[in-house]
Write a structure and sequence with these properties.
Keywords: Cytoplasm, Hydrolase, Metal-binding, Nuclease, Nucleus. The protein is 47% helix and 10% strand. By secondary structure, it is α/β, with parallel strands linked by helices. The longest helix is centred in the C-terminal third of the chain and has 26 residues.
Length: 345
């Protein structure tokens, strides 16, 4: 029964005691402004300068901003910086959370938000044959070693992942016995990634990935005026030049040397990508999430390269010793012989 002389209904003293016992005190952590550091510190932690982080924040804000301001929700800048720290370090989620003063679950949500948002910009920042005019791309490659009409160098790299559970686990075992995603990439002479295929398990051969890619279909239809350069693991085609397996002294040897020097751009791109984003040395996530993170890192690499962010110093990695594919097409051998005769004789 309520009392007319009291503004609030009476509450039993026992109920008050129970409420005090089971009350959970809310702890709102003090999160520092991630941009309140020198550029050298920001680049070391996030691989981007202050201007670069602000650019990414404005770019991704419509996709990652919090829908509420309750409980001191993460700002877009904090969300982006948490994801960048993970991409740059590849450390455990709780370690990123301790560094950014947030919980592990908040780190996981922030990373997922950012890499899914970056996938929306794949068609904007990863464009084949390049953001530049095709003639400029060809001139850039020709200046390296005199190889003509090149619009891209192609190769695959393995991104290590943890062993996935289930019956498909064996599909991800590569020829070295580890679990990985086999990722195909194409780059231009300035180490911009122009094409990426990140969906194949580690057991799949490089040549099959290319044959079943949309890029191969476009070249078969004659959509591009130019050639790709690849290693001996691919078949030589009219638009795809590979080395001579047993070159004769003279023009064929000079051709192989020029191809190797020009194709080194894709190895440099892989080195820069993995050195800039250390998480790509081993991803402790499910294969589908690993593919999304790889694509996001490719987009971030292009943004950093276009904005002229600090480039990590890397050494060109040696080529993988793939078994050669003896399926060279006659038109490919004829095109290769013409290039040797006109440019390296």
């Amino acid at each position: 029964m309520s009392c007319p002389f009291l503004r609030e209904p009476p509450i039993a003293e026992g109920a008050r005691v129970i409420r005090r016992v089971f009350r959970i005190q809310r702890i709102l952590r003090d999160r520092q402004d991630p941009l309140a550091q020198r550029d050298s510190v920001l680049i070391e932690r996030y691989r981007f300068s202050r201007e670069g982080i602000i650019y990414l924040t404005n770019l991704l804000d419509p996709h990652v901003k919090s829908t509420t301001h309750r409980s001191r929700a993460l700002t877009t800048a904090q969300t982006v910086c948490i994801a960048l720290r993970y991409f740059a370090s590849g450390t455990f989620l709780y370690t990123c959370g301790d560094a950014e003063n947030v919980g592990k679950s908040a780190v996981c949500r922030a990373i997922r938000k950012v890499y899914l948002a970056l996938k929306h910009f794949l068609g904007v920042f990863v464009v084949f044959p390049s953001h530049l005019r095709p003639q400029v791309v060809k001139q850039g490659f020709f200046a390296i070693a005199g190889f003509p009409n090149v619009i891209g160098t192609i190769d695959c790299t393995h991104i290590a992942i943890k062993a996935p559970p289930g019956p498909t686990e064996g599909d991800f075992v590569n020829r070295k016995g580890g679990h990985s995603i086999n990722v195909q990439m194409v780059c231009d002479s300035m180490c911009h990634i122009t094409n990426v295929e990140a969906k194949w398990p580690g057991s799949v051969h490089d040549s099959r990935i290319f044959r079943e890619s949309g890029l191969c279909t476009s070249f078969e239809r004659g959509a591009y005026d130019g050639i790709l350069l690849g290693d001996r693991g691919y078949a030589c085609r009219q638009y795809f030049m590979t080395p001579f397996p047993d070159p004769n002294p003279g023009p064929q040897t000079r051709y192989n040397a020029a191809l190797a020097r020009t194709r080194a751009r894709i190895e440099m791109t892989f080195g820069q990508l993995k050195e800039r984003f250390q998480c790509l040395k081993r991803l402790r996530v499910a294969p589908d999430r690993a593919c999304d993170i790889i694509v996001a890192c490719a987009v971030l690499h292009n943004i950093a390269t276009i904005r002229r962010e600090r480039t990590p110093v890397v050494e060109v990695q040696p080529d993988d010793d793939l078994q050669p594919v003896h399926l060279d097409q006659p038109s490919g051998r004829a095109a290769r012989d013409r290039i040797v005769q006109h440019n390296f004789a």
